[in-house]
Amino acid sequence: MQFKKTSALLLAMGLFSMGAAQAADQGGGTVTFSGSLIEAPCSVDPDSKDLNVPMGQVTTAALKSQGTAAPVRFEIKLNDCQNMTQKVKVKFTGIADSKDPKLLGLQDGTAEGAGIKLMNDNGSQIDLNTGLSSEVSLTPTTIISLQAALKGSGTDAELKAGDFTSVANFALQYN
């Protein structure tokens, strides 16, 4: 009888300790918050800070004779704008195309013979590293509408099909 009581007590203690162990760790992790405090009339919306603009599939035929593919629209959104009398422009910097320095060069990948033409919403070109977008008046939430398109930059023989990834940085200039 003593053996049954001791066994029952040990079994109960084992179940209790298993339940306590399970209750102690029921999953978790960490949350890291990061950002920066800036001295500017507006803040860049978190969704606009690191944009990804899919250019889709473009045929080499569309880029022959330094042709331009259909543009893809994208936006830079600014939040918490304070000074409504100011205007903002965007400057793009990056690695230029080897044949046409006004274009963003195709970087990682195997595609060749083209670059990325950056444009204002009206289709006028923004030269990489030197040009500025059109001015946009500030509102509490400002949207800067832009476009990008693949453009042939060399001879037709230099066009080579393949994938690419290109990165441009943008900086805001207020006045």
Automatic annotation (TrEMBL):
Swiss-Prot/TrEMBL keywords: Signal
Domain Fimbrial-type adhesion, first and last residues per copy: 32-174
Keyword Lipid biosynthesis set for record: no
Record-level GO cellular component terms: pilus
Signal peptide coordinates: 1-23
Keyword match GTP-binding: no
A Gene Ontology BP annotation from the UniProt entry: cell adhesion involved in single-species biofilm formation
Pfam families linked to this entry: Fimbrial
Protein name: Fimbrial-type adhesion domain-containing protein
Species annotation: Winslowiella iniecta
